Amino acid sequence: MKIAGRAVTEYDIKLLQVFKSVVENGGFAAAENELGLTRSTISIHMNNLETRLRLTLCQRGRGGFVLTPDGRQVYQASLTMFEALSDFSHSVSQLSQQVSGGLVVLHSDILDETRSRLLADVVAYMNDKAPELRITIDGDRIENIERALIKDKAHVGLFPDYRRMAGLRYKAAFDEQIFLCCSSSHPLFAVAECDIDDSTLLAYPAVVPGVEISQAGRAQLKKLNAAATAYQFDSRKALIASGRFIGYLPQSYMEKEIRAGSFKVLAANRYVYHFSQSVVHKEVPAEPKKVRLFIDALAQCARDYPEIRDTNLLRG
Prior knowledge:
By secondary structure, the chain is α/β, with parallel strands linked by helices. It has three domains: 2-95, Winged helix-like DNA-binding domain superfamily/Winged helix DNA-binding domain (Arc Repressor Mutant, subunit A, Orthogonal Bundle); 101-174 and 276-314, D-Maltodextrin-Binding Protein, domain 2; 176-275, D-Maltodextrin-Binding Protein, domain 2 (3-Layer(aba) Sandwich), CATH 3.40.190.290. Helices cover 45% and strands 24% of the residues. It contains twelve helices and 13 strands. The strands form three sheets. Strands 5, 6, 7, 8, 9, 10, 11, 12 and 13 form a nine-stranded mixed β-sheet that branches. α8 links the parallel β9 and β10. α1 (10-25) crosses α2 (28-35) and α5 (113-129) packs across α11 (288-302). The longest helix is centred in the N-terminal third of the chain and has 27 residues, at 69-95. The relative contact order is 0.13. Residues 310-316 have low confidence and may be disordered.
């Protein structure tokens, strides 16, 4: 394979990866985080690529970042090349039974104690099966996890699937009930369950999720006087603990507080909905063995956690 009359080198591929990121992020500044490079370094790489190709790939200035016609053709050709390289890597990796390299798992909520223990078991299981595997686990927002999966920056995501993105595959993993609760310093803590109804709840400020939830959950939230927003359970828990808000939390997030008498569930039989999370991965993952290993490990380890598992996961 040749460009500008010479063979393509590893350095050319590196420069084209920078170019691809710049195009897909809409400019130099937007590509900084994804590439882990400064804007000036990205600019140097782009100038070097244009010099090596003897082409002007983009216009950048006050009008923003705009691809030239040559730039559009180079971008499309680079996609073809990277796809071919990915296919080659996938084909070769399938020849080996040893799973090694990196595995990136992203989740959307800070893990409660139960899920932390489960994930620890999953890591131990995978380490026994593939000791050469380097495992990265981190939290992020759902839209960022979706983007990482599509771009092969992550292998597996754990998040609610109330909306589904084309190109990703979803498999039920966790299912848990979400209860309305308050802290011991809230006025409703001393109110009997039989005296709590929809009109009672409207008299008190509530914290609600800042993300999309299930239809049943949305129906429950309509009964609340929304006065604060929290995107993650730990943030919501802190607001509820202040004694100024009521709100919905999974039982596993407040078990210790309930036992200690600092939190109380409000009319559990009436104010409750289900929270489900899925294991999510790319429809055609670049490294399917790693994805399969994680799913198998989770299914195996989830058998010991009946309080949060979804039986669909165990069916394979």
